[in-house]
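Summary for the steering committee. The consortium agreed at its last meeting that each partner would contribute one worked example illustrating the joint modelling workflow. Our contribution is presented below. We chose a case with several input lines so that the handling of multiple components could be demonstrated. No manual editing was applied between input and output; the record is shown as generated.
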Amino acid sequence: MTLAGAIPRWPRRLRAGLGLLAALSALAVVGPWMAGDPTAIVDPKVVGLLPPGSVRAVVVRRDGTTVAGDALRRSGPDWVLVRGGAEVTVTGSEVARAGVRRFWAGTDVVGRDVLARLVNGARVSLGVGALALAVALVLGVGVGLLAGWRGGIVDALLMRLVDALLAIPMLFLLLFLAALFRPSLAVLVLFLGFSSWMGVARLVRGQVLSLKERDFILAARAIGAGPWRIAFRHLLPNALTPLAQDAALRLGDLILVEASLSFLGLGVQPPAASWGTMVAEGQEVLANAWWLTGLPTALVAATVIAAALAADGLQELARSET
Amino acid sequence: MLRRALRRLGAGIALIWLVATFTFLLVSAAPGDFATRLTDPRIPPAARERWRRDFGLDRPLPARYASWLAAAATGDLGSSWIYKQKVSSVLASVLPNTLLLTSLGLALELALGVALAIVQLRRPHGTGDRLITLATLTAYALPTFGVALGLVAVLSYRLHLLPPSHMLSLEGELAHGWARLPDLARHLVLPVVAIGVAGVGAVARYLRGSLLDERLEQYVLAARARGCSPRQALVRHALPNALLPLITMMGMSLPFLVSGSLVIEVVFSWPGMGQVMYNAALGRDLPLLLGGTIVATAAVVVGNLLADLAYAVADPRVRV
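What follows is the complete predicted structure of the assembly.
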């Protein structure tokens, strides 16, 4: 009855944080189907570097190429585009789709739809962050349980290893690894996860140490429960709230680190693009196109705020439990 | 106390050795070496083999490790491939620039964080407190490059107040000694503010929480009973105790003094450790990457040691 208590009784910040995280995840999962192709290049001459909210007429030909203009009208079976003072006629039989389109988040230099790129970036950024968190949690919980439960020399060795790894400047090491191995998405997830499990291990070990002499654990051992059963049915459920709080903060950290690495060109590699990659690309036109850097930055910040709110809320919950 | 300090120092040296070994093995596992870096197809394979032999790359791994470690122990970290200089002299030439930038940045972060937390504690849960909480949460959540690019976009490109990058302008480069100072100061403002803003969130958020707890402790109530004003009780009595764990926090953020400003240095083209490591990563300059990581780790070890000592000085209950 710790985390599983009725949702309405959760602290407001916890509900707000989890709600925002859920909304962003929904955007990452469903968004890419609705926002269209993030790689489609729409006539850079007319649609390049449009500020958010701009409206342009777009005609998609059957061969996949597009023409765009400021206005659109029909002339018999054909379509006529007003394009920079001149008129362009597209034969009706060539046209696959024609219509007026609003670019809610503007476009980039080559005329790609920023909204489509943002929601696809959400999938990459949140996906990499969440999977790296999963790697860190599996490793950290495993090592923490082992060290705390076994104690003695195993504990001492594992904890010295944790201390040593914590002292390495992680951004340098990640840079190092990225430079040596040019990571694919899967490898990047592993690198990030491996750079982040030590805190989890410390936390879990501490929880195990404080729980393992308690009566209910002794009772479980007395009736012959095995170590796996004790770990997953008795120890972990009782450490769930601090673990969840740590995980929330860690998710924010991982997303920030991924964004920084990708911003430096050493994280997510093209053609995949995360929010960090988008900022790096937009940096070149920083002076006259704020939305290319501003919008992905804002989404990173929103995700980290959501995670921090959830963590604050969980801490509040933990306090009210004791 | 001396014996424990020496033991910590020994553990620190062991740690640096571990990290050096680990990174050396990583580099050895990476595909390609110095000879394959020369991609000119006209170089005959026999010449490549001769180079490998001349540089000792054909020897077995343990032998290479031994000679590398022996050299590294005397401070010789090999030669950088892209800078065509000793790794140690490349790092030594940029380390002061990084220390200047990040120590000012950390000082700003700390001062701003303490000031904000004290203002918030005037009326906890009031409007001002809520607004500052929102601001510090946002500062905490913004990626460093976001803060840096925002400052450049507004203050450099829009308002033309400050230079967007580099440490000195051309006139500054030509000036000598103290005459450089005004130019240097103008170039320092944006990166220092970027570091301060990016870091202030964590400090202020932590300090607010611990001051809220500390405020209810009996010694603060006792100070109030003796006639201290609420402000005095907060600043003179509660703040020093709340600041104690911050020493550890600062000690842990000391690696930042050497490495953490990487993104800032890249955005502002600041000639420091981060910039050099970034170039090394892009150019796959293995000796430089190796040396930089080891120096940064050494800085962390020294930082943690100093933080422990500072803690012992600040809090007589703790003896290292």
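The longest strand of chain A covers residues 95-103. Chain A touches chain B through 40 residues (CB under 8 Å).
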